[in-house]
Amino acid sequence: MKTNVLFLSAIIAVLNIFSAFPQKEDSLLLQLKSLEQKLSDYQHRFDILEKQIDDLMWFRRLEDIAHIDKVRLTSTPRWKPKDPEDRFAGNKLQFYSYVFIPKNVNPKKKYPLIVLPHSGIHANFSTYYSHIVRELIAQGYIVVSAEYRGSTGYGKATYENIDYGGRENDDVLESRNYMIENYSIVDPSRVGVIGWSHGGMIALMQILQHGDKYQCAFAGVPVSDLENRLASHNESYTAYFTTPYHIGESIEENPEEYARRSPTHYAQNLDKPLLIYTNTNDNDVYVEEVQLMINTLKKHGKEFEYKIFQDASGGHGFDRIDSKEATDIRFTVHKFLERYLKPPHPFASQKEMRRAAYGF
Fold first, then answer.
1. Which helix (H) or strand (E) holds 33?
2. By CB neighbour count within 10 A (0-12 exposed, 13-18 middle, 19+ buried), where does 333 fall?
3. Are 116 and 199 in contact (CB under 8 A)?
4. Can you give the C-alpha Rg of the chain in angstroms?
């Protein structure tokens, strides 16, 4: 990765030098710009390689307790075609989902399902989540995680199919439906959705837009309102939305489009148990944005649970890291899920949870 960045930086530097000398051949500049584009495209190839390596790590890190699979599914088409003349623009998009099933399941029984969308605008379900998945598997949950449109590690086309706050939610819902339709051991009456950051946003969207499909949701440090978020972040964040292959318009040009991609827009729909966690020193999803979600739910008279942690260590990742403080907080999330999903092997203590995730 670092080598790739250095190459790209060198090319840009050379381009700047030649730009300062107009007497140089235009053809050479065109060649250098072409090379710059190729190097940019190579980033997706590096992402694919990194993802394939991490997939091997998934199997290594959970093979002792889980049956692990990666399946390919289809969801809705792009929300708008890249090329209006493309006669295949209405084709359903393909995406991958991870499936984790405890090795000790009884095929004659049914088990609760956790839908776990990953965080990040352009990111993927990496082994960053391995300890959390181990905690879930130890309790008897089946877990599914969709690599929804816009995820990295699957090439340029998947990357540019990004639909932040839009049809990425269709992909996550489809992963939930796939599990119920294809695994008789999944109990459709015990399905929860959990996520952090952008995954927390998707968890909110699932429970607010498809409340009949879930029994409960946990949203950790969730992206909640795009108007608030764009106002508090720099222009590089805005560029994710205004790029031609995504929305292609700014929030000033099309505020309605951004509103429909914000969980606050659907707060009035909440009718299932919800837990929200946020942290005052979060340096990514600022506490004010999550408080806006909390206040909007209150304004609509909704019953839900939340906690605002005061300067918890770890900032944005305060309850996903591996410290005792973080895992003790995560224990409370598991106890919330336990109330509504009734896992067969709930944790009796924080120490039991630590042993399940870390071995000691």
1. helix 26-62
2. middle
3. yes
4. 22
Q: Are residues 34 and 158 in the same domain?
A: no
Q: 338 is written with which tokens?
A: 């336990």
Burial-class residue 108 by CB neighbours within 10 Å (0-12, 13-18, 19+).
Answer: exposed
- Count Cβ atoms below 10 Å from residue 63 Cβ, excluding itself: 11
On whether both 284 and 216 belong to a single domain, the answer is yes
243 Ramachandran zone, left/alpha/beta (phi>0; psi -120 to 50): beta
Residue 10 and residue 75 share a domain? no
Residue 193 carries which side chain, given as an amino acid letter? V
**Residue 10 pLDDT more than 70?**
no
| Of residues 221, 308, 219, the one with CA closest to residue 272 | 219
What domain count does the chain have? 2
Amino acid at 311: D
Kindly report the pTM of this predicted structure: 0.90
- Look up the CATH number of the domain holding residue 192: 3.40.50.1820
Q: Which residue has the tokens 């984790």?
A: 100
- 74 and 204 share one domain: yes
Same domain membership, residue 258 and residue 229: yes
Could you tell me if 221 and 259 lie in one domain?
Answer: yes
- Residue-number span of the structural domain to which 2 is assigned: 1-62
Asked whether 95 and 169 are in contact (CB, 8 A), the reply is no
Could you identify the residue written with the tokens 């309102």?
Answer: 225
How confident is the model over 34-48, as pLDDT tens digits? 777 767 778 899 999
- Of 98, 137, 176, nearest in space to 343 by CA: 137
